[in-house]
Design brief:
245 residues; mainly alpha; 11 helices
């Protein structure tokens, strides 16, 4: 770690440092693009399934409805759009945990360049299950709080001075929780160990979350740039470990 930087700044620049590392490593692009590939496959499959379900539902509800009339056309169009929108949400939500094995391998590559010996590999099923468990735990802990703050702001607009910054902190913390999952998974860290890591390094974790939020601000960019976040998080975790030895 750069001793002249604060932990928050170290975390803030970590995703961008990971992006620069990834751009210079074409051999790592395949692993980094796995979430994008899985997301696209899920989007196509889920959209097709959703549109098929919509068509079946419309036929059952209105047997005489056809696309030849304006109302029929609108009904089909709205149904297709809803199906594609739901498919997109599900694809974005599932692509990252389903890419757990590839992203752990990417974190392993970064560690080897940092001089850390290769760790034993987990099975694909174990990696996916661990990633899903960590993601669900993070959502269960943060999503109700974000919703509660949004409701509080709705009924008491003056509270936005406090609730909006708190929502930003929670969102950034959740982003960092998701991305730091991969280097911590290489260490076989469970939920308690991850909570302990966040407690010990919260300024760095929050800074990384802010950097990730900026990086992912373009819709869909998360799937393309998540590899950069993982590479940066791996170096950050490694540097923090070395600093506390």
């Amino acid at each position: 770690m750069n001793p002249r930087r604060s932990p928050f700044v170290e975390g803030l620049v970590a995703p961008w440092e990971g992006l620069f590392w990834l751009v210079r490593r074409p051999q790592a692009w395949g692993l980094a693009l796995v979430p994008t590939a899985i997301g696209l496959v899920l989007l196509v499959v889920l959209s097709a399934a959703g549109i098929g379900a919509v068509e079946h539902l419309l036929r059952d509800l209105h047997p005489g409805t056809s696309t030849s009339g304006l109302l029929g056309l609108l009904a089909h169009l709205v149904g297709w759009l809803v199906a594609i929108a739901l498919a997109l949400v599900l694809a974005l939500a599932l692509a990252q945990p389903l890419s757990g094995t590839a992203l752990e391998a990417l974190a392993g590559q970064r560690e080897q360049e940092l001089g850390i010996a290769k760790r034993p590999e987990s099975s694909a099923a174990a990696s996916i299950f661990r990633s899903l468990r960590v993601t669900v735990f993070g959502l269960v802990c943060t999503l109700p709080l974000i919703v509660a703050l949004a409701v509080l702001t709705l009924f008491f607009p003056a509270a936005a001075v406090v609730t909006v910054p708190l929502k930003l902190v929670l969102t950034c913390t959740m982003l960092a929780w998701d991305i730091v999952d991969y280097p911590l998974s290489l260490r076989s860290a469970g939920v308690r160990a991850r909570l302990a890591w966040f407690g010990a390094h919260f300024p760095a974790a929050l800074g990384m979350g802010v950097g990730l939020a900026v990086m992912f601000c373009i819709p869909g960019a998360q799937l393309v740039l998540i590899g950069a976040g993982v590479a940066g998080a791996t170096k950050l975790v490694t540097d923090l470990e070395a600093a506390h030895r």
